[in-house]
Amino acid sequence: MPIDKTVASAEEAVADIPDGATLAVGGFGLSGNPMALIRAIEARGITGLKVVSNNCGVDDWGLGLLLRGGQIDKMTSSYVGENKEFERRYLTGELELELTPQGTLAEKLRAGGSGIGAFYTRAGVGTQVQEGGLPQRYNADGTVAQASQPKPTAVFDVNGEPQEFVLEEAITTDFSLVHALRGDRHGNLVFNKAARQFSPPAAMAGRICIAQVEELVEPGEIDPDAVHLPGVFVHRIIEVGSDIEKRIERRTVTETAGSEES
Fold first, then answer.
1. What strands lie across the sheet with 118-121, from one edge to the other?
2. Which residues contact 216 (CB under 8 A, 6 or more apart)?
3. Measured between alpha carbons, how far is 181 from 178 in angstroms, rounded to an integer?
4. Which of 102, 148, 244, 251 has its CB 3.0 to 4.6 Å from that of 134, i.e. a possible disulfide?
């Protein structure tokens, strides 16, 4: 692997992603969405994608752009509540959905990137997550075409008490896409605030990780203690600048005294 991992453009960075690829995509809500990479994939018209991400953006932003174009066949997510097109495609059988508890999803990605095949967790025990039956794909008439299957469980001693745990398999993907605040040419990354939530484990899970960064610096300019993701996990990096558009799902404004006069 070359030491200098920079590429010239988002288009070049995603040029070898094929139809039907699996993708792990960082971001939390609309925070930290790798928009330049998503738009490059949208422009290429790649279809049949199977995407693992916290959510699927909104109708006109984030992964919602790929969903709108019919480019995503399956989503593995923990939250899907802000996208009407997602709801429509899921309920009409156009989209497969694997709902996963949020912490479990993050750990499945981290485990995959760490070479761990599976792990046990208490999250989901005694629910449809463990027992099966969650609708994953519907028929056009609204009946369930595919449901989740039961997962193995085991009992372990925790503080002197037997407790049941469910076995969750790790996730690895063909590619991963992340957005970082800063990165160097070796691929070391620093994420900003909420974008740090899912981006490091998503990056780790991809066999090929592609990162877009707002600021590209030279090796040594990032304090090693400040690195959130080591460059060993990153294969390609592009600089997108700090003036890119950033969105939030909902803006809540509280009026203060004198706000009308101002």
1. 118-121, 161-169, 153-158
2. 6, 182, 183, 184, 185, 237, 239
3. 10
4. 148
Are 148 and 166 in contact by the 8 Å Cβ rule? The answer is: no
Helix runs in 128-171, H state only: 128-131
Q: For 62-113, what is each residue's pLDDT tens digit?
A: 999 999 999 999 999 999 877 899 999 999 999 999 999 999 999 999 999 9
Residues 184 and 231 sit within 8 Å (Cβ to Cβ): yes
CA torsion, ordered 175, 107, 71, 98, to nearest 10 deg: 150
203: enclosing H helix or E strand = helix 199-205
Q: Are 235 and 204 in contact (CB under 8 A)?
A: no
pLDDT digits (tens, 9 = 90+) for 37-66: 999 999 999 999 999 999 999 988 999 999
- Domains in the chain (CATH in brackets) are 10-116+171-239 (3.40.1080.10), 118-169 (no CATH)
